[in-house]
Amino acid sequence: MSQVRLPCPRQCPVSRHSAHLSRDIVNTSERGGGACRWDGWWLPRSRSKGPKAAVAREYGISRGWVHELIRRYEAEGESGLEPRSRRPRSSPQRIPPWVEDDIVELRKTLADQGLDAGAHTIAFHLTRRHGASPAVSTIWRILSRRGFVTPQPQKRPRSSFVRFEAFQPNERWQADMTHWTLAGGEDTEICNMLDDHSRLLVASEATAVAFKAADVVATFRTSAAAHGFPASLLTDNAAVFTAGPRGGGLCAIELECAALGVSLRHSSPYHPQTCGKVERLHQTLKRWLRRQAPAATVAELQAQLDWFREYYNTVRPHRGIGRRTPAEAFAARPTAGPSKSGLVIPTHFRVRRDRIDSVGRITLRYNSRLHHIGLGRRHVGVRVLVLVADLDIRVLTEDGTLLRQLTLDPSRDYQPHASP
Q: For 324, which DSSP code?
């Protein structure tokens, strides 16, 4: 009959029981552990249930586990009592290797193109590709295991931000400027306008020089022609958006919004978080532009912006709107519009650029008939922006100064000059 000597049960943990040791069932007192009141207690190992039951009670384990440890010891010696892996021999629910390869391939492809390549975006593309996708948490674990995720514990948690979002499309637009450098080192400026509710990128226009007041109005008008006028416009305090910091008065976009009944609001100075949605768009856009061949001209840059706007609006799922595309979110609800009293939204409007000729006039075609509008010889050679809303016409200089406002008389070729 073999014998087992029991050391102190508080020395070390067992592989399956945190407060005990598998070696406690064999003679281990000779290999250290110090003197103990259990030394000298020799327990006969037999088929009797009494001693084994006593060991199980003393160590707080089951009798079946005692029998298992004895069986391992008799078969393998002390090596049989080493802790063993509890990993199952098979995992029927494990993600197939080809799905993991798809996830990694999507991650690399999207990242190389400068596009969002997070777990949510990969899940969206997998669903479109295969009709189903693993859980976002599963994709995140696969990316972490493959070394694609860098922990950033210093980042401020999303839950700490105070968020606001318009309830309807066109309830609020956000507009802001950002800069980009061409291949030859020339600086350009990009004007982005974003719908606050759906994140639809309604405008992304580039210019070789700084945007002027008339350029902002032209971009706003062009966007409204495609998507409708917004109820309000939110911007920062740049000079092209407000004349307030320069001693009062109104700039071109302020005059335009007032005429259309659009509420124009500005963020607090030095607080870009108020316009956070369009600021975050700048980051997404620039990350994508860095992955593209550098544009040599403004025209090439504009072509890149047009491609990005189409992709951003119709292909890329947006995390902030439930993984839908901005175009889907924009079409899901009725759009809002200007609501100030006395507003009449024109049924036809367009924006035109011109230069005042040598006799102080510009030309405008209406219903296939050419009309001449007098502005005065003192403005000869000045470049102007012509805003046409049915018969209502306004002529502004590129810095936003109103030169003339009139109602076109379709029966007359020449529209006599009148002061604004």
A: B
